[in-house]
Every structure is written in C-alpha cells, then in structure tokens.
Amino acid sequence: MDNDYILCSVLTPQEYTILKLAMDVRVKLKNKSRKEEPLFTLQQNYIASLFHFSPNTVVKAIDKLCGVGVLKEISNKYGECSTYAFVPSKYQNLLKKAQKKDILLRTGRNKVCQNVSAEKVLSYIVGKSIVKASNMQ
Question: With 0-12 CB in 10 A as exposed, 13-18 as middle and 19+ as buried, what is 123?
Fold first, then answer.
C-alpha cells in the first residue's frame, strides 16, 4: 500500500501535493539519467495553474519542503527557475516523524476523543472501509 498519505499529518495538502509532484518529476528524470539524484526545476506558475494554488502558496510550500530538508535548493539565480534536488534520507526521516505523530481522533458513537498515531488512523480508515464494504454485500 502506498502509505505516504501519512505525510498529511505533518504537511499541508499543498505541501504534500508539491512533494508528490517533485517525486514524480524525479522518478521520470532518474529513469532517463544515470545520475545519483537528478536535478530538476519546479515551475511555480505552472504548479499554481495546474493545482489552483496561489503563487504565494506554491512559494511557501516549496520553502517548507526545503526547510524540512526533503528538497535541497541547488541554484536560485534572479530571473531563472530555481533548481532542486530530492533528498531521500530526509524524506525517510519525515515519513518516520509522520508515522509517530499523534492525532486527536474522535471515534465511537459518543465521538470520544483519543490520541492515536497517524499510522493507526490510516489503518483505521482502510479497515473501516473494508468492513463497511463487506457489510454492504
């Protein structure tokens, strides 16, 4: 199962979307080149148009991803697109942090609040869907 949805516990939906986009670009470049980690650009205007984000939101999301170390800014010359590299070790660290993060979950008939790890919440979502679907058949 593609469990990187768990990153939504530590990233905003916009940051998560841009991270997924950067990872897709990286995979396509990596298939074409033999470099360890390929360099790529993120066209902020294109991203804003495609995902209906404001340009400011795109800039903030990229800055946050650079701040947590998942993306490393290689060059940033005035008037040119910035060049980035993906940092797999930082991505794994962020994934571990997300798995350990506690989330306040309201569950049960009385909607009792309880602290549960993000990983368990994701398991609950999948498990509940399976149970509900099997009950419908």
Answer: middle
d(CA 106, CA 74): 43
Q: What are the structure tokens assigned to 48, written together?
A: 């804003």
Q: What are the pLDDT digits (tens) for 81-130?
A: 789 999 999 999 999 999 888 888 877 777 778 888 888 887 777 777 77
For the stretch 114-123, pLDDT in tens is 888 888 887 7
Helices (H), 7-104: 13-32, 44-51, 55-67, 88-100
0.70 exceeded by the pTM? Answer: yes
SS3 for 3-21 is HHHHHHHCCCHHHHHHHHH
